[in-house]
Design brief:
Layout lengths: L13 H4 L3 E4 L5 H12 L5 E5 L2 H9 L9 H4 L29 H9 L13
Length: 126
C-alpha cells in the first residue's frame, strides 16, 4: 500500500520481506511455489495470511493487510499500489510449447507477438 513502511524503499531483500504478512496465490499453485521456494532457499519463513486471486489480492494489499510478490510489469498496472524491486527475489521461467504443424490461429498470432523465428512459416489450415 502507498502508506506501507516499505513503500518508500528503493529496493528490499527477502530477509526484510520475511517480517511482513503476505497475501499470496493458493498453496500448490505455480505462482505460489516460486515465492515459497525463494524463501525456503534463503532459509526464511514467512506468514501467508490470505490466499487470493489477483483482484482480491490487490484489494487486501490496498487495505494494508499484507504485501505480495508479483511480477513488476504486472504489479505496475494495479491501481493504488507501490512497486518496490526485490533484490534477491524469486525467478520464474516460462516455457512455451507448440506444434509447428498447423498451430491454431490463436497460437500463430501469439507466436507472432513473441517474434518466434519461423512461427509464420508453419503450415496453415485451409
Amino acid at each position: 500500500a502507498p502508506d506501507h513502511p516499505l513503500a518508500g524503499e528503493r529496493e528490499v531483500g527477502l530477509p526484510r520481506l520475511a517480517e511482513e504478512v503476505f497475501v499470496d496465490f493458493a498453496a500448490g499453485s505455480a505462482a505460489r511455489a516460486q515465492s515459497d521456494d525463494a524463501f525456503a532457499a534463503a532459509g526464511l519463513r514467512r506468514e501467508v495470511a490470505f490466499e487470493a486471486g489477483v483482484d482480491l489480492m490487490a484489494r487486501l494489499i490496498r487495505l494494508g493487510l499484507g504485501v505480495a510478490l508479483l511480477p513488476a510489469e504486472f504489479a505496475a498496472g494495479l491501481h493504488g499500489l507501490r512497486c518496490v524491486p526485490v533484490r534477491d527475489g524469486p525467478v520464474r521461467v516460462e516455457r512455451l510449447v507448440w506444434s509447428r504443424f498447423t498451430p491454431s490461429p490463436a497460437a500463430a498470432a501469439f507466436l507472432a507477438l513473441l517474434d518466434v523465428p519461423g512461427a509464420d512459416d508453419s503450415p496453415r489450415r485451409s
